Amino acid sequence: xxxxLTPSQARxxxxxxxxxxxxxxxYEDAALAELCRNCEIDKAxxxxxxGCGTGRFASLLLRKHLSPDARFSACDLSQNMVxxxxxxxxxxxxxxxxxxxxxxxDFEPGKPPFDLIISSYVLDLLAPDGISDMLTEAARCLNxxxxxxxxxxxxxxxxxxxxxxxxWAKIQHWRPNLVGGCRPVRLAEYLDPKIWRITHQRVVxxxxxxxxxxxxxxx
Length: 219
Ligand SMILES: C[S@@+](CC[C@H](N)C(=O)[O-])C[C@H]1O[C@@H](n2cnc3c(N)ncnc32)[C@H](O)[C@@H]1O
Known about the structure:
By secondary structure, this protein is an alpha/beta fold. The protein has 6 helices and 7 strands; from the N terminus they run ααβαβαββαβαββ. It has helices at 7-17, 25-38, 56-65, 79-88, 128-141, 159-174, and strands at 46-50, 71-76, 96-100, 114-120, 142-153, 196-206, 209-218.
């Protein structure tokens, strides 16, 4: 059995998981706040989110961080997640677009070029080829000087967070469905330095669960 959920398994899982995704805030929120502080979000005018889930992070961005004239678009594989996000972002519909994508990493419906692309807790569930495809499309769709902001589960570097991430990785290996297909990853290893310049990289630990925040500028 593969360690990774196939796109159709991931779609089925997240269609079923739906609004329960919002309960993950207990370990996600500190890392998302770290991303907001470090990706010059207030300067962005055309923002794209890959894998928006229920739209919880998108709603925070539109309410608190993005300029009122910034455009926002997002895609998700799951039909249920897209419906939840569209509902949540209804009041911003004049300047936002949420669509259901397939697994081919095509950001064209969001109308690139973007000056900021973000993705939280999505690349850590993709197989390595899927991560590379997403990063290739992100590089194609970002302006030179545009920013990529990523948050993912990662390996704890020490103590309890190290232990938690080891246990998490074992569960993902044996029963990927129990953890939504997500596993600890080190995304910097996927960022080609000829294309990306990392401007911020930090591991944030909440409730012993380590998340990595990376901001990279498209050269
Ligand atoms: C763990 S959830 C994270 C959702 C949201 N980004 C957050 O931080 O709350 C993963 C999301 O990625 C979506 N997803 C999985 N594979 C995807 C793919 N290939 N393309 C787009 N979205 C995908 C799932 O449907 C799900 O909504």
